[in-house]
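Students often ask why we bother encoding 3D structure as a string. The short answer is that it lets us treat folding as translation between two languages. Here is a chain of 419 residues written in the first language.
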Amino acid sequence: HNMDDDNALKEFAGSAIDACLYELTSLSLKIHARPELAYEEVYAHDILADYLEVKGFEVSRSYLGLQTSFCARYSLSSSSSSSSSATTPTPTIAILCEYDALPGIGHACGHNLIAVAGIAAGIGLKAAIKKLGRGTVLVMGTPAEEAGGGKIDLIRLGAFQHVDAALMVHPSQHHCVYPRVLAMQELKVEFHGRNSHASAAPWDGVNALDAVVAAYTSISNLRQQIKMTDRIHGVITDGGVKPNIIPSHSSAYYYIRSRNPKDLKLLQERVFKCFQAAALATGCTMTHEWVDKPYWDVATNTIMAELYSDNILRLGVVLPGVDEQQSFVLGSTDMGNVSYVVPTIHPWYKINSEEGNHTEAFTKASSTKESHDVTWLASKAMCFTGVDLLVNKDGVMDKVKEEFMRVHGPVQDSIIQSM
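And here it is in the second language, the structure alphabet:
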């Protein structure tokens, strides 16, 4: 086996991507112009699934019953050419796409770019598989990353059971193959007290505003005692109606983040106690909701990350040093949960935006030609990493799995239940 074969395979895959760039850009801009919220991405689902079908993939729409999810598959097995059953099983590579937008500001996280980056990589891998004669690529449409956690739904539905590696790239203000993405849980709390006239009979009231302010202050005090990798941020969503009425109702909405699910659980307990104590101190009753499913941290597979870094460097992208990459703390994503059930990378790539993700400036940047050009580089790096895994040169796919087993152990049902 020689290096030239791999490079020829990558060039072949790269040309297949190049041939589709005009169509892919058009798909991206259509999605950008018609932003849809989590679980409502009907238009994006339809045009992406249609396109993949035209490109010769076998497409399952509303995959596993999830309305705006799809899975496009292309597979060849080497065993068909020989009677021997000893042929090594070839890996199944999943390339993930996101396409939901944010309320009010549209595609401020560039998911239109993520969608076409995934499709481009899928087209490249399909070409490589055809030439190689073996392998499986899945292009998986994963809805609702901004709210709800579509990838967690898919994990629970068994979408990743026979997947050997999962890859997705994401636009950002940095090139970063080892992102520090925190685990996260949302919490909504309401306090119920009793109205009274604030001047005539304040002693008859039970002040729900006092409760939410006490909780807010306790949590602010807690921040001094938490780890560097912990984050707690929240807003008071209801603080009463009129100054002369003791508020009978108040509410708050918090995000709690930490470096992994274990630390997150501990931090959740500490934050929750601040709310309970506030209820007790003020005589209010309290109701709460742990919103959606927890997002877990991204546990980057370092073998895959090295392959991707090598591939993107060859495409002319200069990466910061690994230490610097690991110092960028980013938001949270349900891709983290995927990284606990299958070897995963989730590289970020730099587009020119005045401001970071989730801003109007980023929405604008997500539609420019320059942003699409760098998206194709990240997409090719992702595709070529898939080629490396399919070829399994020097047993690299085996090393990826070994690392995953060392870090996570076999994937138990209990892990999936706890998501």
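Translate back mentally: Residues 81-86 have pLDDT under 50 and may be disordered. Keep this in mind for the problem set.
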